[in-house]
Design goal:
Blueprint lengths: L3 H17 L2 H17 L3 H24 L3 H26 L4 H10 L4 H30 L13 H29 L20 H12 L6
Length: 223
Protein backbone atom coordinates (compact mmCIF):
# COMPACT_ATOMS: atom_id res chain seq x y z
CA UNK A 1 0.00 0.00 0.00
CA UNK A 2 1.02 3.62 -0.45
CA UNK A 3 2.35 5.67 2.44
CA UNK A 4 -0.58 6.76 4.59
CA UNK A 5 0.55 10.39 4.49
CA UNK A 6 0.41 10.27 0.70
CA UNK A 7 -3.05 8.70 0.76
CA UNK A 8 -4.24 11.32 3.20
CA UNK A 9 -2.88 14.07 0.94
CA UNK A 10 -4.62 12.55 -2.08
CA UNK A 11 -7.85 12.43 -0.08
CA UNK A 12 -7.62 16.14 0.70
CA UNK A 13 -6.72 17.02 -2.90
CA UNK A 14 -9.60 14.98 -4.29
CA UNK A 15 -12.05 16.41 -1.76
CA UNK A 16 -11.12 19.99 -2.68
CA UNK A 17 -11.07 19.40 -6.43
CA UNK A 18 -14.45 17.66 -6.40
CA UNK A 19 -16.04 21.02 -5.53
CA UNK A 20 -14.62 22.90 -8.52
CA UNK A 21 -14.28 20.43 -11.41
CA UNK A 22 -16.95 19.86 -14.03
CA UNK A 23 -18.64 16.54 -14.80
CA UNK A 24 -15.79 15.32 -17.00
CA UNK A 25 -13.27 16.25 -14.31
CA UNK A 26 -15.32 14.38 -11.72
CA UNK A 27 -15.28 11.31 -13.97
CA UNK A 28 -11.47 11.55 -14.25
CA UNK A 29 -11.17 11.85 -10.46
CA UNK A 30 -13.26 8.71 -10.02
CA UNK A 31 -11.13 6.81 -12.54
CA UNK A 32 -7.92 7.87 -10.76
CA UNK A 33 -9.37 6.91 -7.37
CA UNK A 34 -10.32 3.44 -8.61
CA UNK A 35 -6.90 2.97 -10.22
CA UNK A 36 -5.28 3.88 -6.90
CA UNK A 37 -7.19 1.03 -5.26
CA UNK A 38 -5.99 -1.33 -7.99
CA UNK A 39 -2.37 -0.19 -7.49
CA UNK A 40 -2.74 -1.13 -3.81
CA UNK A 41 -4.03 -4.63 -4.72
CA UNK A 42 -7.55 -3.79 -3.56
CA UNK A 43 -9.07 -5.16 -6.73
CA UNK A 44 -12.38 -6.34 -5.32
CA UNK A 45 -13.04 -3.01 -3.66
CA UNK A 46 -12.12 -1.19 -6.86
CA UNK A 47 -14.46 -3.35 -8.95
CA UNK A 48 -17.34 -2.73 -6.52
CA UNK A 49 -16.84 1.03 -6.70
CA UNK A 50 -16.53 0.86 -10.50
CA UNK A 51 -19.85 -0.96 -10.82
CA UNK A 52 -21.54 1.46 -8.44
CA UNK A 53 -20.23 4.50 -10.30
CA UNK A 54 -21.31 3.04 -13.65
CA UNK A 55 -24.75 2.36 -12.18
CA UNK A 56 -25.09 5.98 -11.06
CA UNK A 57 -23.97 7.22 -14.48
CA UNK A 58 -26.50 4.96 -16.19
CA UNK A 59 -29.30 6.15 -13.91
CA UNK A 60 -28.38 9.78 -14.60
CA UNK A 61 -28.35 9.15 -18.36
CA UNK A 62 -31.75 7.48 -18.34
CA UNK A 63 -33.40 10.17 -16.23
CA UNK A 64 -31.86 13.00 -18.27
CA UNK A 65 -32.72 11.60 -21.71
CA UNK A 66 -35.81 9.42 -21.34
CA UNK A 67 -37.69 10.36 -18.17
CA UNK A 68 -39.28 13.60 -17.06
CA UNK A 69 -40.96 14.06 -13.70
CA UNK A 70 -40.70 16.48 -10.77
CA UNK A 71 -39.81 13.71 -8.34
CA UNK A 72 -37.20 12.34 -10.72
CA UNK A 73 -35.64 15.80 -10.96
CA UNK A 74 -35.06 15.69 -7.22
CA UNK A 75 -33.57 12.22 -7.60
CA UNK A 76 -31.37 13.52 -10.42
CA UNK A 77 -29.98 16.21 -8.11
CA UNK A 78 -29.15 13.54 -5.55
CA UNK A 79 -27.39 11.54 -8.27
CA UNK A 80 -25.30 14.53 -9.29
CA UNK A 81 -24.24 15.10 -5.67
CA UNK A 82 -23.35 11.42 -5.32
CA UNK A 83 -21.27 11.48 -8.51
CA UNK A 84 -19.43 14.57 -7.24
CA UNK A 85 -18.59 13.13 -3.83
CA UNK A 86 -17.95 9.51 -4.80
CA UNK A 87 -14.27 9.93 -5.86
CA UNK A 88 -13.41 11.24 -2.39
CA UNK A 89 -15.32 8.39 -0.75
CA UNK A 90 -13.48 5.86 -2.92
CA UNK A 91 -10.09 7.10 -1.73
CA UNK A 92 -11.33 7.16 1.88
CA UNK A 93 -12.43 3.53 1.54
CA UNK A 94 -8.84 2.60 0.74
CA UNK A 95 -7.65 4.39 3.88
CA UNK A 96 -10.18 2.40 5.90
CA UNK A 97 -8.12 -0.74 5.17
CA UNK A 98 -5.03 0.70 6.88
CA UNK A 99 -4.36 -0.71 10.40
CA UNK A 100 -5.32 1.76 13.13
CA UNK A 101 -1.83 1.87 14.60
CA UNK A 102 -0.22 2.67 11.27
CA UNK A 103 -2.82 5.29 10.49
CA UNK A 104 -2.32 7.05 13.82
CA UNK A 105 1.48 6.90 13.59
CA UNK A 106 1.41 8.39 10.07
CA UNK A 107 -0.91 11.23 10.98
CA UNK A 108 1.15 12.01 14.06
CA UNK A 109 4.15 12.57 11.78
CA UNK A 110 2.03 15.16 9.97
CA UNK A 111 1.53 16.95 13.32
CA UNK A 112 -2.24 16.51 13.14
CA UNK A 113 -3.90 17.81 16.36
CA UNK A 114 -4.91 15.03 18.73
CA UNK A 115 -8.61 15.96 18.68
CA UNK A 116 -8.77 15.77 14.88
CA UNK A 117 -6.64 12.61 14.88
CA UNK A 118 -9.01 10.81 17.25
CA UNK A 119 -12.12 11.88 15.33
CA UNK A 120 -10.68 10.90 11.94
CA UNK A 121 -9.41 7.52 13.13
CA UNK A 122 -12.67 6.56 14.82
CA UNK A 123 -14.68 7.68 11.78
CA UNK A 124 -12.66 5.53 9.36
CA UNK A 125 -13.12 2.50 11.59
CA UNK A 126 -16.76 3.19 12.38
CA UNK A 127 -18.37 2.76 8.97
CA UNK A 128 -16.84 -0.63 8.03
CA UNK A 129 -17.81 -2.02 11.43
CA UNK A 130 -21.29 -0.54 11.09
CA UNK A 131 -21.71 -2.25 7.72
CA UNK A 132 -20.73 -5.58 9.27
CA UNK A 133 -23.21 -5.04 12.10
CA UNK A 134 -25.95 -4.18 9.60
CA UNK A 135 -25.26 -7.44 7.77
CA UNK A 136 -25.52 -9.43 11.02
CA UNK A 137 -28.82 -7.73 11.91
CA UNK A 138 -30.17 -8.52 8.43
CA UNK A 139 -29.19 -12.19 8.74
CA UNK A 140 -30.85 -12.46 12.16
CA UNK A 141 -34.00 -10.84 10.79
CA UNK A 142 -34.04 -13.28 7.88
CA UNK A 143 -33.86 -16.24 10.27
CA UNK A 144 -36.86 -14.86 12.17
CA UNK A 145 -38.82 -14.36 8.97
CA UNK A 146 -38.85 -10.55 9.13
CA UNK A 147 -36.61 -9.74 6.18
CA UNK A 148 -37.43 -7.69 3.08
CA UNK A 149 -36.04 -10.62 1.08
CA UNK A 150 -39.30 -12.42 1.90
CA UNK A 151 -42.15 -11.05 -0.22
CA UNK A 152 -44.77 -11.48 2.51
CA UNK A 153 -43.13 -8.67 4.49
CA UNK A 154 -43.41 -6.09 1.69
CA UNK A 155 -46.92 -5.21 2.90
CA UNK A 156 -45.51 -4.02 6.25
CA UNK A 157 -42.71 -1.54 5.40
CA UNK A 158 -42.99 0.44 8.65
CA UNK A 159 -42.74 -2.71 10.73
CA UNK A 160 -39.74 -3.85 8.71
CA UNK A 161 -38.10 -0.46 9.17
CA UNK A 162 -38.56 -0.78 12.93
CA UNK A 163 -37.07 -4.28 13.04
CA UNK A 164 -34.02 -3.26 11.01
CA UNK A 165 -33.26 0.34 12.01
CA UNK A 166 -33.93 0.30 15.75
CA UNK A 167 -31.39 -2.49 16.46
CA UNK A 168 -28.92 -0.78 14.11
CA UNK A 169 -29.29 2.56 15.91
CA UNK A 170 -28.75 0.89 19.27
CA UNK A 171 -25.64 -0.85 17.95
CA UNK A 172 -24.41 2.44 16.50
CA UNK A 173 -24.43 4.10 19.91
CA UNK A 174 -22.59 1.19 21.47
CA UNK A 175 -20.05 1.01 18.62
CA UNK A 176 -19.19 4.68 18.97
CA UNK A 177 -18.52 4.22 22.69
CA UNK A 178 -16.50 1.05 22.11
CA UNK A 179 -14.30 2.63 19.44
CA UNK A 180 -13.64 5.73 21.54
CA UNK A 181 -12.81 3.58 24.59
CA UNK A 182 -10.49 1.41 22.50
CA UNK A 183 -8.59 4.44 21.22
CA UNK A 184 -8.30 5.88 24.71
CA UNK A 185 -7.05 2.56 26.09
CA UNK A 186 -4.31 2.52 23.47
CA UNK A 187 -3.12 5.93 24.66
CA UNK A 188 -4.43 8.13 21.86
CA UNK A 189 -4.86 11.08 24.24
CA UNK A 190 -1.76 10.47 26.36
CA UNK A 191 0.34 13.67 26.74
CA UNK A 192 3.67 11.86 26.30
CA UNK A 193 5.51 11.29 23.01
CA UNK A 194 4.14 8.21 21.27
CA UNK A 195 6.04 5.47 19.47
CA UNK A 196 4.96 2.86 16.94
CA UNK A 197 6.32 -0.43 15.63
CA UNK A 198 5.25 0.60 12.12
CA UNK A 199 8.02 2.01 9.94
CA UNK A 200 6.67 5.21 8.43
CA UNK A 201 8.72 6.13 5.36
CA UNK A 202 8.11 6.87 1.70
CA UNK A 203 8.86 4.03 -0.73
CA UNK A 204 9.63 4.05 -4.47
CA UNK A 205 6.14 2.78 -5.23
CA UNK A 206 4.72 5.98 -3.74
CA UNK A 207 5.82 7.71 -6.95
CA UNK A 208 2.68 6.24 -8.52
CA UNK A 209 0.61 8.11 -5.94
CA UNK A 210 2.44 11.35 -6.70
CA UNK A 211 1.67 10.92 -10.40
CA UNK A 212 -1.97 10.29 -9.48
CA UNK A 213 -1.99 13.52 -7.47
CA UNK A 214 -0.69 15.45 -10.48
CA UNK A 215 -3.36 13.78 -12.59
CA UNK A 216 -6.02 14.99 -10.14
CA UNK A 217 -4.70 18.55 -10.32
CA UNK A 218 -4.90 18.43 -14.11
CA UNK A 219 -8.69 18.05 -13.89
CA UNK A 220 -8.90 21.77 -13.11
CA UNK A 221 -8.03 22.47 -16.76
CA UNK A 222 -10.62 20.07 -18.21
CA UNK A 223 -13.39 22.03 -19.90
Amino acid sequence: MFDVRLQFGLLLICGCLAIFVNETGSLVLAAIAILLLACQNQYRLGINWFLMYCGLLLARYLITNYLSDTFLNVFLLMLLIALKTLPTIIIASGLAKVPSGKLIASLQKLKVPESILLTFTVALRFFPILRAESKIIGENAKIRGISFKQSKNWLHPLQMFEYSMVPLLMRTIRLADDLSASATTRGIDAPCKKTSHYEIAFQPKDAVGLVAGLGMLSTLWIV
